[in-house]
């Protein structure tokens, strides 16, 4: 039979047969006078056995030796060990898939984007603002979650849970819209008034969560936060951020909450990472 007929009978493609030849699990047959490969029923049985083993997850590199042992000695003595290894590997894959399904369910429940940590998804549902601050917030959340790791995630989740308060989120959304409107024509008075409003809304949260801060190693990435923010904001928005940073440092120093200025990481009008120092 020709390769197309063998492929049809075995339920594979001709390309798969060629791949089997390349990796050495199926010997190439002799060619007929017309130049086409000529296969027989033994090749069909071989391909069916290869498919069966591959479907179990056995790497193709192990297939030739396994088939040779079973053909000469019957069921290989190490078959049980191989099957045990495959079973453990599949159990691990099933556990990972189950975890992925749990994450998908969490994200779906909160209508959250798939690139967000599921533990923080409720915050972004409660605060569906748009604009430059929302983009900064989302992107810096991804980075902070990575830096926090499994150990720090519960602490980070508590911070976001506090910020997801419905009233706080609504007021924060209004502040984000005001921040987006800052531009070349915005006066110093507008910038100052907006910073005052940010402090009025988020100042109590800073005080409330300050005592719960835990160490977070930013790994020298503080400058990346600043670089990311500076490339997105206009001059007046940057002025607002710098003024807000100065006021937050002044507030923490006055209340003896922090002895050093927090790193230059900014998000939604205040630096989330300041709670971690």
TrEMBL record:
Q: Which Pfam families match?
A: MerR_1
Quote the SMART domains the UniProt record gives: HTH_MERR
Top-rank taxon of the source lineage equals Bacteria
GO MF annotations, alphabetized:
DNA binding
Does the entry feature the keyword DNA-binding, yes or no?
yes
Q: What is this protein called?
A: DNA-binding transcriptional MerR regulator
Q: Gene3D superfamilies annotated for this entry? A: 1.10.1660.10
* Matches recorded under PANTHER family: HTH MERR-TYPE DOMAIN-CONTAINING PROTEIN (PTHR30204:SF93), REDOX-CYCLING DRUG-SENSING TRANSCRIPTIONAL ACTIVATOR SOXR (PTHR30204)
Presence of keyword DNA-binding? yes
Keywords, comma-separated and alphabetical = DNA-binding
Positions of the UniProt region annotated as Disordered: 252-277
CDD domains (alphabetical): HTH_MerR-like
HTH merR-type domain sequence ranges: 1-69
């Amino acid at each position: 039979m020709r390769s197309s007929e063998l492929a049809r009978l075995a339920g594979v493609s001709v390309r798969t047969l060629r791949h089997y030849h390349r990796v050495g699990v199926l010997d190439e047959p002799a060619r007929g006078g017309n130049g086409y490969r000529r296969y027989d029923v033994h090749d069909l049985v071989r391909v069916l056995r290869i498919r069966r083993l591959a479907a179990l997850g056995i790497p193709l590199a192990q297939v030739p030796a396994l088939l040779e042992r079973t053909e000469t000695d019957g069921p290989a003595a190490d078959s049980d060990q191989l099957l045990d290894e495959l079973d453990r590997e599949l159990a691990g894959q099933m556990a990972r898939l189950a975890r992925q399904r749990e994450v998908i369910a969490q994200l779906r429940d909160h209508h959250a984007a798939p690139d967000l940590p599921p533990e923080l998804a409720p915050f972004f549902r409660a605060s569906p603002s748009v604009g430059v601050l929302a983009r900064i917030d989302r992107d810096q959340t991804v980075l902070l979650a990575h830096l926090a790791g499994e150990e720090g995630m519960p602490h980070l989740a508590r911070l976001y849970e506090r910020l997801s308060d419905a009233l706080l989120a609504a007021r924060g959304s209004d502040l984000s819209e005001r921040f987006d409107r800052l531009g070349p024509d915005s006066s110093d008075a507008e910038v100052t008034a907006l910073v005052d409003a940010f402090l009025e809304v988020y100042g109590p949260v800073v005080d409330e969560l300050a005592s719960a801060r835990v160490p977070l190693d930013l790994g020298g990435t503080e400058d990346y936060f600043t670089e990311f923010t500076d490339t997105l904001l206009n001059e007046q928005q940057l002025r607002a951020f710098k003024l807000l940073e100065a006021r937050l440092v002044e507030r923490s120093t006055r209340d003896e909450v922090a002895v050093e200025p927090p790193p230059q990481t900014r998000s939604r009008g205040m630096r989330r990472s300041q709670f971690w120092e």
